[in-house]
Amino acid sequence: MTSPQPRVVLGVGAGIAAYKVCELLRRLTESGHDVRVVPTADALRFVGEPTWAALSGHPVSAEVWTGVSRVPHVRLGQEADLVFVAPATADLLARAAHGLADDLLTNTLLTARCPVVFAPAMHTEMWEHPATQANVATLRARGAIVVEPASGRLTGADTGPGRLPDPAELFEVARGVLARSRAAGEGARDAAVPLDLAGRHVVVSAGGTREPLDPVRFLGNRSSGLQGYALARTAVARGARVTLVAANVALPDPAGARVVRVGSAEEMREAVLEAVQGAGGEADAVVMAAAVADFRPAGYRDSKIKKTPGAEPEPIRLVKNPDILAELGARPHGDQVIVGFAAETDDVLANGRAKLARKGCDLLVVNQVGEDLAFGRPDNAAVVLAADGTSTEVPRGPKEALAEIVWDLVAARLKPAPG
Questions:
Q1: Is position 16 annotated in a ligand binding site?
Q2: What are the b/e assignments for 310-338, b being 16+ CB within 10 Å?
Q3: What is each CA distance from 7 to 3, 78, 115, 151, 186, in whole angstroms?
Q4: Can you tell me where the transmembrane regions are (predicted)?
């Protein structure tokens, strides 16, 4: 029977980022998870055993010889609903990939039959080294989720990819993986939940574009980016490699996603096309959740437009922006699944069906927007229209719930991965 308190093993590697994992542990315990911390011996040089024990409420050891009568090196992995390793150092990834079992954490990894997530953190050169990348590929091929590290300031003066993602975002990954595992039903702990987006590259757009009028003004919209970010997070939790093209969003980067920041519709078009047709090959799916401005000012003023006393302002002439979704739908895209979003204020379904026909996409998520609807809210409701004539109604609920349904529909349309 499924425990009402999800059981999480939090493995901690020997990296300076271990101090950030204290915040991840706090979020897990305060949200009702039963967490057992299993550090490596060297990890205790960064954060000591008393801290982990106090935050988790359980005794902590890195050794297989502590509490031998309870057989912890087997029991911890067998009983866990999730094993989450952060920071996952280059050494720890290598040991896990090669099946070594020289401490309590690596023993636990071998006995775990639940979802396993690694959150790497190391210097850029170590992350990009072919040996590390081969170990990551091996772990992913076995069904583990290896979250892409963030880019930013590292130890010392170094900057680059290899930074541990924000603990709040790692918590969202853990929560998403657990929710998916539990949704799979009883017995999910006996076999890892299939990652239906594993090995896939997906591109998601989010936020709202801004079209500059002068140095201080722009034409924009109310999109917060919350739905696009929910799509990115849930795709990571399902094993995908995610490129998130974000326009004017004030949200922390989703853990595991590569974020490309843009401002205008023209910039978004360039970034989306580059991501879709990048050096890594065609993306398997593109989800255009961003609110892209239909129009932009025909001209840009180099200085602020001033009010003239007693005179009406000059009209602002608008021109059309590129239609990114229609361009994606019109180009030969083979097995690529293209998803659009349609924000409507009236005649929602009629407008949605007409837009689906015009855009050439496989799926169109149609939702009603307006005051206190969709934009800036944590919840959403929609109807997902498909090019084959089917439709899926999604009742109002968390934006993550809508994201999961979108990815269910995408996954069902993806051709089998080669090999």
A1: no
A2: eeeeeeeeeeebebbbeebbeeebeebbb
A3: 8, 11, 12, 30, 14
A4: none
Give the per-residue pLDDT at 164.
95
Q: Characterize the bridge pairing of strands 159-163 and 150-153.
A: antiparallel
Q: What is the DSSP letter of 370?
A: B
Residue 304, marked binder:
yes
Domains 7-190 and 201-413 share a fold: yes
Strand partners, 320: 295
Task: Consult the annotation and say whether 309 binds a ligand.
Answer: no
HSE-up of 18 (CA within 13 Å, CB side)? 23
**Could you report the average pLDDT of every consecutive run of 10 residues in the chain (419 residues)?**
78 96 97 96 96 95 66 78 97 97 94 95 96 96 93 83 94 92 60 78 96 92 92 94 95 93 96 82 91 92 87 89 93 89 83 90 85 67 92 92 95 82
Domain extents for the chain? Answer: 7-190, 201-413
CA–CA separation, 317 vs 298, rounded Å?
6
Complete DSSP assignment for 23-88: HHHHHHHHTT-EEEEEE-TGGGGTS-HHHHHHHHSS---S-TTTTGGG-HHHHHHHH-SEEEEEEE
Which pLDDT value is given to residue 280?
A: 54
Q: Which helix (H) or strand (E) holds 283?
A: none
Please tell me whether the overall predicted TM-score, pTM, comes out greater than 0.85 for this model: yes
Are the CB atoms for 204 and 245 separated by under 8 Å?
yes
Distances (CA, A) of 375 to 37, 224, 365, 406, 412: 39, 6, 14, 18, 28
Q: Is 294 within any annotated ligand binding site?
A: yes
362 annotated to a ligand binding site: no
Spatial CA neighbour of 256 closest among 178, 398, 148: 148
Assess whether 107 carries a catalytic annotation.
no
| Assigned token pair, 116 | 């396993």
Q: Which fold has domain 201-413?
A: Rossmann fold (3.40.50)
- Separation between Cα atoms, residue 290 and residue 215, nearest integer Å: 23
Q: What is the CATH number of domain 7-190?
A: 3.40.50.1950
